[in-house]
Amino acid sequence: MGLTVVKLSLNLLLWGLIQAVATNGGLSWVSVNVPQYRVPGDTALLQCNYDLGNGSLYSVKWYKDHEEFYRFVPKTRPQATAYRVQGATVDLSKSDSRKVVLHPVDWKTSGLYRCEVSAEAPAFSSAQSESRMEVIYFPQEDPIITGVELQYQIGDEITLNCTSGKSHPASILHWYINEQQVTSSGALIRYPAYHDPNGLITTTLGLRFTLSSRHFQGGSMKVKCIASVSPALWRTDRESVVQNLPIKDMREALLLVKSSTTRTTKSLPLLRLVTVLFVIVFALT
């Protein structure tokens, strides 16, 4: 019985302390506003909103991928301090207890950002919130089609490779024959992505198929490769992202093959490569 009374008393005491802190109007919530997407060279404004009630602020700390890069402590001089963290370049002149400005951003700025707020005595409470930001580097070059032969015959096996320009995240490649996307796994050759020393990614996708007369519409066949940044990146916050884009998010390489009137000894039509065209396609309309 005595042990039960002691436990009950401790529970009541703990409940009383919690109620006292709540009544004292301590830290009640923290939320962050972090831009979802940015492009290299942009400025990123990270906001940390919180309610201290009647309490006082002890510190605000910002972390990128669990590594502290900014701290604001009202009672210290200077109040704001930035720490060297890759990708998190802080503009101290524009940062304070409720916001941090990163400039310029690069692809290494991508990561998970967390704001941790701590209150002064007597509450000594703390709370945190986090959100992710991705920096997108668009390919500056059109995709390149390689493996092209000068002549093809019906029945030949055609093997082509399409290589994207450097990007972050990796570009997604798709092959099209006469505007029809190639989806058969047997026709697609997937290669490992290449990561350059700066962290940018180049992707290559192969195409293999046997040439037949059905591939020709009006005497020609179009083989196209499209490289694009993942569409999932554009499903939210689309307008604000598009305003900052130096180029659109899709590039295209087109291979045009036309049939010739020349015939081989096997009486099969001979096909000649006419040209390879590189054009920019405006994917966001």
Order of strands in the sheet with most strands: 2-9-8-4-5-6
Termini separation (Å)?
76 Å
Beta content comes to: 35-45%
C-alpha Rg (nearest Å): 30 Å
**Helix/strand-derived class?**
mainly beta
Helicity level, as a percent range?
A: under 10%
Compute the number of strand runs: 21
Which consecutive residue ranges, at least 5 long each, have pLDDT under 50? Answer: 3-24, 231-248, 261-285
Q: Work out the oligomeric state of the chains in this entry.
A: single chain
Order of helices and strands: HEEEEEEEEEEEEEEEEEEEHEE
- Average pLDDT across residues? 78
Number of helices: 2
Shape: rod-shaped
The biggest sheet amounts to: 6 strands, mixed
Question: If you had to describe this structure to a student in words, what would you say it looks like?
Answer:
- With 285 residues, this protein is mostly beta strands.
- Helix content is 9%, strand content 44%.
- It is built from two helices and 21 strands.
- The chain has helices at 2-23, 238-242; strands spanning 29-33, 37-38, 44-51, 57-64, 67-72, 80-82, 99-102, 111-119, 126-135, 144-146, 151-153, 157-163, 172-177, 180-181, 188-190, 194-195, 201-202, 204-210, 220-228, 250-263, 269-280.
- The strands form five sheets. The chain has a six-stranded mixed sheet with strand order 2-9-8-4-5-6, with no helix packed on it.
- The model is unreliable at 3-24, 231-248 and 261-285 (pLDDT under 50).
In a few lines, what is going on in this structure?
By secondary structure, the chain is mainly beta.
What attributes does this structure have?
285 residues, six-stranded antiparallel beta sheet, six-stranded mixed beta sheet, 9% helix, 2 helices, disordered C terminus, 44% strand, rod-shaped, disordered N terminus, single chain, mainly beta
